[in-house]
Amino acid sequence: FFSPGFQVAPETKAVMKWLRSIPFVLSASLHGGELVVTYPYDYSRHPMEEKMFSPTPDEKMFKMLAKAYADAHPVISDRSELRCGGNFVKRGGIINGAEWYSFTGGMADFNYLHTNCFEVTVEVGCEKFPLEEELFTIWHENRGALLNYMEMVHRGIKGIVSDKFGNPIKNARISVRGIQHDVTTGN
């Protein structure tokens, strides 16, 4: 997952352990500097390719998740090309991460490959480091989109895998025909 020789920081190890210990199914990473929602894979399947579409087996689901956020965001959903993120207008405010730019070691890729959690990255505003007085506006621009995104947790298949006595089965593998990515049941 990480480049050869890459040293994993203690904080990163702690987050990785935490993510593996709790059966999260949906998350978002919030960044600044653009107005777009990206989804895995963030790392190109061909590392020498900088801007190469790199879909997961769950491409349709990730597009739906990213679109749920983007469509509910008043600025990302704005069709004006005269704003930051204008180059994403024709894409509906979403893009496959590696198609925008490829990088290794991202949370969204880690979550998809090593947990049951589907994560998107939300670029919440034009400024990489917004001023304190801009935070209130950014919050209000993203609040409804965050709530809409969180409601997506109710999409898909859900239930309890149990034995013949009704006891939950921990770490049962669940496969969906046509999708080459299994998930496992939680504790």
From TrEMBL:
GO CC annotations, alphabetized: extracellular space
Pfam family, one: Peptidase_M14
Keyword match Chaperone: no
GO BP terms, alphabetized: peptide metabolic process; protein processing
PROSITE patterns in UniProt: CARBOXYPEPT_ZN_2, PEPTIDASE_M14
Domain of life of the source: Eukaryota
Cofactor or coenzyme needed: Zn(2+)
Family of the protein in this entry: Belongs to the peptidase M14 family.
Protein name per its UniProtKB record: CBPZ Carboxypeptidase
Source organism of this protein record: Oceanites oceanicus (Wilson's storm petrel)
